[in-house]
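Continued from yesterday's entry.
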Amino acid sequence: MLNVGDMAPDFLGLDECGNEIRVSDYKGRRLVVYFYPKDSTPGCTAEACSLRDGMDELVAAGFAVVGVSADSAASHARFKAKQGLNFPLVADVEKKTIEAFGAWGEKKMAGRTYMGIIRTTFVIDAGGAVERIITKVDTKNAARQVLESACNK
C-alpha cells in the first residue's frame, strides 16, 4: 500500500468513456482517488452520491474526484448515468491501479475469506504526493470525511 508522502502512480486508467485519466491531469489541484468494490451496491452508491452531493464544497476546497473499481466501463457508464455522478470512474478490470495503490487484499465477510477491493480513499496533493489515506470510509459521509481530513492536515 502507498503511504503518506509517497508519490501516487501517475496513470490511473481509462474512464467510463475511454478517456485516459492521470494524476498529472490534476496537477496544481488536490485529487481524491477513491477505491470502491462494486457499482450499484448500497455502500458504493452511498459513497458515490455523498461525493456527488458534496462536489461544490470539494471543488471550493480545491479538490477533484476520481472513483476506481474493477467494474467494466459499461457498468461505470450505467452507474454514473443512474446516479448523476459528476466525476470520472476508472474501469480497472485488470486491477493494475488498484494493486499499485494497495487497495486489493484479503477481505472477510460472513465467515468467508476472499480477495477483493478494500474501500480506501487517497487524498493526493497538488504535486502528486499522497497527503492522506482514509481506510475507515464513512460511505454516507464520504465528502464530509475528505473535507474534515483536509482541515486536519
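--- second protein ---
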Amino acid sequence: MANEGKVTNGEELDRLLRRGVAEVIVWEEMVELLRSGKKLRLKEGFDPSFPDIHLGHMVTLRKLRQFQELGHQVVLIVGDWTAQIGDPSGVSVTRPMLTREQVQANAKTYMEQFFKVVDKARTEVRWQSEWFGKFDLADVIRLTSRFTVAQLLAREDFSNRYHEGRPIAVTELLYPLLQAYDSVAVKADVEFGGTDQKFNLLVGRELQSMMGQRPQQVFLAPLLIGTDGSQKMSKSLGNYIGVAEAPSEIYGKVMSIPDDLIMDYFELLTDVPDEELEEFRQQLSKQTVNPMVLKKRLARELVTQLYDQEAASEADLHFSKVVQRKETPGEILEYRVSFKYLRTMGEPVRVPNSEGISPIASQLLEHPDISRLLVKIGLAKSRSEANRLIAQGAVSINGKKISSNIASLRSGSIIKVGKRRFAKIINTDETDKGDR
C-alpha cells in the first residue's frame, strides 16, 4: 500500500531511530526513506551455527517488528553457505564448518524462535543457496576482485589476529563479501545487526554501490550485556537468557541480573514508555525503590512478550514460592533413568542389620554419579559443569546439599540445582522389575 510506512511524526522517528539503537548509517538518508512512504526491504541475516536465540538477539528483532508494524518488509537471510565458512565477529576464533543437515536443523529451531518476536506473515525467508548455488569459480573471483586484502584487514578482529600472528583462513576473509552479496541479491534497503557486525554491513553498502544499487542503510543495535554483568550475552559464555526457555526460567534469570543492568534491559527489551523509565532511573538513583521490585516488573514484561500474561503471573508466583520462600514447587518434572547406567561404584550399597543384609536397603539405596545424571536430564551441559555446580554447593537432594558427585539417591528423590530448577528422579530399574 502506497505511503503505508510513511513516518512524519517526530516522536515516531525517535522511537524507531533512537531507543534501542547504537548507530544509523546514514541518519539523514534513513529519515528521508521513512518520510518517503516507500515500503522498505529490511535485511536480517543469520548463520545457523547455533539453533537458539537469546535476549541479545531480541534487541534487533524487536526493532524489526516495529518497522513491520509500519508496513515494511523483513527479509530473513538463512546463511546456509556462510554457516559452512564461519564468522568470528568479535570472538576471534574460527568456527567449525557445519554440514547441510546441521544447518537445516539449526535453521528450523532458529526460525521457530525468531517468529516469537517477528511477524511471520510480513517476513520473506531467503536461503543463500538460491544465489550462491549458481556461483562458479569465476563468480567468486569477480566478487573478490572488488575488494583488497587491506580493506578486509581493517576489520578489528582480523586486524588483531593478523598482528598477533594468529591464523586467518582465506574462507574467513570471504565471509564479509558473501554477506555483502546477500544485500545485492535481495535488494536490501536497510540491514540490521549488532555493533559487532558494523564492518560486514558497511561492506554490503559499498558492494551495492559498486553494482548500481542504492546503498543500504546500516542499522546497528547495542550489544546486550549478559547476566554476568560484564560480557555480551552469549550461549558460549553461559550468561544468556533464551527466548524459548520456560517462563519460570526466564523470570528467574532476569531476577539474577546485576542492578546496574536493569535500565538497559528495560530500554532495549520492553515497550515501557520513556517517561516511566525516567521515573525508574530517578528511583534507583535516589534509592527510593528496591531494585527487586523493578526486576520483577521487567521479568513480567519479558515473559508476557514471549508467552502471555498468564505465564508471567505463574512465573511470578513460582519465583515467590520457590526462590524467596524456598518452598518446593507443586509440579516437578519427573525423569525416568536407569541407576545402573549412572552408577560408578559397582553394586548398590548393602546395609547390614542384625539379620544380615537388609533387602529394602539393597533395593532402594544407590550411589550413582550425580554429575552424569545432571547431564542426562538436562540440568547441566557437561559433566565438568555439573561437577562445578556440585563443588559450589548449588546441588541438593531432598533438601540436603551434596559436596561430591557420588551421593545417595533413591527413586522418587527430588534434585534441586541452583535456586529454580527441580527434577524428580524415578529409577527405571525398579519399575521395570515390578513390571515383570
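Residues 170-186 form the longest helix (17 residues). The chain has 20 helices and 13 strands. Will compare against the first tomorrow.
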